Amino acid sequence: MEVVIAPGPELARLAADAIERVLRARAAEGGRAVLGVATGSSPLAVYDELARRHTEEGLSFAGVRAFMLDEYVGLPADHPERYRNVIETEFASRVDIDPADVHGPDGLAEDLPAACAAYEAAIAASGGVDVQLLGVGTDGHIAFNEPGSSLASRTRIKTLTRQTREDNARFFDGDVSRVPTHCLTQGLATIMSARHLLLLATGKHKAEAVHQIVEGSVSAMWPGTVLQHHPHTTVLVDEAAASRLQLASYYRETFAAKPDWQGI
Ligand SMILES: N[C@@H]1[C@@H](O)[C@H](O)[C@@H](COP(=O)(O)O)O[C@@H]1O
């Protein structure tokens, strides 16, 4: 696991660099990159940077396929907080990706388990996710894999914890009763199948989760700790989110000594 401690705008640039590298490498070999996209506030600066590179530098997302991490169950199709709409607003509509290439679990399906299985099959059929953006909940959840999630889980229905619903109430006029109670989420094993994981966390409220994920024991109680088993995870954090890391000076020295060509 590689830990990078830097100011927010620098983190967004590094994440965009990693994504751009994959896009260019796939395009050069005549293939199609597969991008894992996430909701929440953490990836927003990355989408801003990717949109800027698209507009100002001609970075193209034509042919790129995107897979979302999760979706609320039951939010109406036109609800602005439906994750499909959030990704459309924050990312897809700002670049040249084909809307038909943006996929998410169908939280309005009549048969939700079948929708979860279909989503797993679609990810597999794409060849798998090249680079996956991730945020983290204050309780250490990634996507919507709440504490107690099986480390071997695949896309499925989950019940949201009170904590997550309270955290997300800010997107629903501060009214927790309007936050859906259920979601469909990629499982931890689904996320672990991606080739490169980029976890972004900023702010003091993420410090404990970041500490657990990077330095704690692997446990379903802190679902993000499963990332310790991934061969290529990059944890991008600002000073506040890094404030509980025991080996912070080691991570800083390691990154500062890294040659320019190595990237993240
Ligand atoms: N399902 C999403 C997660 O994917 C996200 O990581 C988390 C943290 O969001 P934020 O980045 O806004 O703190 O929020 C939600 O629960």
Characterise the protein shown here.
This protein has 264 residues and is an alpha/beta fold. It has one domain: 3-Layer(aba) Sandwich (Rossmann fold), CATH 3.40.50.1360. The chain has 8 helices and 10 strands. It is globular, with a radius of gyration of 17 Å. The N and C termini lie close together (11 Å). Bound molecules: 2-amino-2-deoxy-6-O-phosphono-alpha-D-glucopyranose (GLP). 2-amino-2-deoxy-6-O-phosphono-alpha-D-glucopyranose binds at residues 38-42, 69-70, 135-137, 143-144, 164, 168. It holds the Pfam family Glucosamine_iso.
| Total number of distinct structural domains | 1
**Structural class label:** alpha/beta
What's the helix count?
8
Largest sheet: 7 strands, parallel
Q: What Rg, in angstroms, do the CA atoms define?
A: 17 Å
CATH fold topology: Rossmann fold
Per CATH, the architecture is: 3-Layer(aba) Sandwich
Strand content is 15-25%
Please give the order of strands in the largest beta sheet.
Answer: 1-10-9-6-2-3-5
Helix share, percent: 25-40%
User: Which CATH first-tier class would you pick?
Assistant: Alpha Beta
Which distinct ligands sit in these coordinates? 2-amino-2-deoxy-6-O-phosphono-alpha-D-glucopyranose
Mean pLDDT: 97
Order of helices and strands: EHEHEEHEHEEHEHEHEH
Low-confidence runs of at least 5 consecutive residues = none
Give a topology summary.
Blueprint: E1 2-5, H1 8-28, E2 34-37, H2 44-57, E3 65-68, E4 70-72, H3 83-90, E5 102-103, H4 112-125, E6 131-134, E7 156-159, H5 162-168, E8 182-185, H6 188-192, E9 196-201, H7 207-215, E10 233-237, H8 248-256
Helix pairs in contact: 1-2
Bound molecules: 2-amino-2-deoxy-6-O-phosphono-alpha-D-glucopyranose.
Residues 38-42, 69-70, 135-137, 143-144, 164, 168 line the site of 2-amino-2-deoxy-6-O-phosphono-alpha-D-glucopyranose.
Pfam family, one: Glucosamine_iso
Keywords: Allosteric enzyme, Carbohydrate metabolism, Hydrolase
Function: Catalyzes the reversible isomerization-deamination of glucosamine 6-phosphate (GlcN6P) to form fructose 6-phosphate (Fru6P) and ammonium ion.
